[in-house]
């Protein structure tokens, strides 16, 4: 028999016996109740019917993922990695630990990363959120709940202060104009370089799917991330690139930060 184990540091397990129906979300009626701000009230449903283990996304805002691929519905097997927005889980044999050698680890536990052209390549790091990341994320959520600065400003400060970047900025592109919503750390040389504006303006009209562009601007390596409906996020990595799991977490965090700021009337949107 299989179980669903949460990889959020809690170690909570849920039986996946035949006949199981596990609703996942933040609502009180959910069997798998999560507390992450980027998880929907009723996010997904995991069922086992006649030996077929299925995950069904229930129209969540930030998506349900199986082995790195966003899905509406997918069949699961032992070793598969799930992600309910930023919250990781895995299907494991009953009583077993996380399976580093199962189906999800067919590429050494790695999720595919979408390139700007839509192709996929294997990430050099696995999509996991170890305890330090969970603790760091908790500090960000505390900052957001405390108020003060805008949520997007707190996000870039958190990225520079606690994650693997030395500079970060959130930028809006509206009718050919670029507005810096928030910036922190060693990012001024990037923002002042003409290549920054050229990249963002060239891409803004053509971006219909999430993009992650790694390039050089102002003499610095830059990761430019864009999800439709959200501003650009520029990251200047430090000695090492952020792991793929952390990059996959950032877009939902930016979405939450933006919603918080729009609710407070602290950003013009666009």
Structural overview:
- Helices cover 24% and strands 34% of the residues.
- The chain is built from 5 helices and 18 strands.
- Strands 2-1-11-10-7-8 form a 6-stranded antiparallel beta sheet, with no helix packed on it. The protein has a 5-stranded mixed beta sheet with strand order 4-3-5-6-9, with no helix packed on it.
- A hairpin with a 5-residue loop joins β17 and β18.
> What Rg is obtained from the alpha carbons, in whole angstroms?
19 Å
Adjacency order of strands in the biggest sheet? 2-1-11-10-7-8
| Sheet having the most strands | 6 strands, antiparallel
End-to-end gap: 49 Å
Shape: elongated
Q: Quick one: how many beta strands? A: 18
Which stretches are poorly predicted, pLDDT < 50 over at least 5 residues? 99-131
The SS-based structural class is alpha+beta
Q: What key phrases describe this protein's structure?
A:
270 residues; alpha+beta; 6-stranded antiparallel beta sheet; 5-stranded mixed beta sheet; 5 helices; elongated
In short:
With 270 residues, the protein is α+β, with helices and mostly antiparallel strands. The protein has five helices and 18 strands.
Topology:
Elements: E1 2-6, E2 13-15, E3 21-25, E4 32-33, E5 44-49, E6 52-57, E7 64-66, E8 69-71, E9 73-76, E10 81-84, E11 87-93, E12 112-114, E13 120-122, H1 131-146, H2 151-162, E14 165-174, E15 177-185, H3 188-192, H4 194-204, E16 211-217, E17 220-226, E18 232-237, H5 244-264
Parallel strand pairs: 3-4
Antiparallel strand pairs: 1-2, 1-11, 3-5, 5-6, 6-9, 7-8, 7-10, 10-11, 12-13, 14-15, 14-18, 16-17, 17-18
């Amino acid at each position: 028999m299989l179980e669903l184990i949460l990889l959020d540091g809690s170690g909570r397990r849920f039986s996946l016996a035949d006949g199981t129906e596990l609703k996942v979300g933040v609502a009180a009626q959910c069997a798998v109740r999560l507390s992450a701000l980027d998880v929907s009230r009723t996010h997904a449903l995991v069922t086992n019917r006649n030996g077929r283990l299925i995950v069904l996304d229930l129209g969540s805002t930030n998506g349900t993922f199986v082995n790195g691929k966003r899905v509406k519905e997918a069949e699961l097997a032992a070793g598969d990695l799930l992600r309910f927005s930023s919250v990781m889980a895995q299907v494991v044999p009953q009583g077993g630990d996380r399976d580093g050698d199962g189906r999800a680890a067919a590429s050494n536990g790695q999720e595919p990363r979408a390139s700007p052209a839509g192709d996929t390549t294997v990430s050099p790091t696995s999509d996991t959120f170890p305890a330090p990341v969970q603790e760091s994320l908790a500090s960000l959520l505390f900052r957001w709940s405390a108020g003060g600065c805008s949520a997007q400003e707190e996000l870039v400060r958190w990225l520079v202060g606690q994650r693997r970047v030395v500079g970060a900025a959130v930028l809006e592109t509206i009718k050919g104009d670029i507005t810096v919503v928030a910036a922190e750390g060693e990012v001024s040389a990037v923002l002042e370089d003409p290549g920054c504006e050229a990249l963002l303006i060239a891409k803004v009209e053509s971006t219909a799917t999430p993009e992650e562009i790694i390039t050089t601007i102002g003499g610095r390596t830059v990761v430019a991330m864009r999800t439709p409906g959200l501003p650009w996020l520029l990251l200047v990595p430090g000695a090492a690139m952020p792991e793929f799991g952390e990059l996959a977490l950032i877009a939902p965090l930016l979405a939450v930060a933006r919603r918080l700021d729009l609710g407070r009337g602290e950003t013009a949107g666009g």
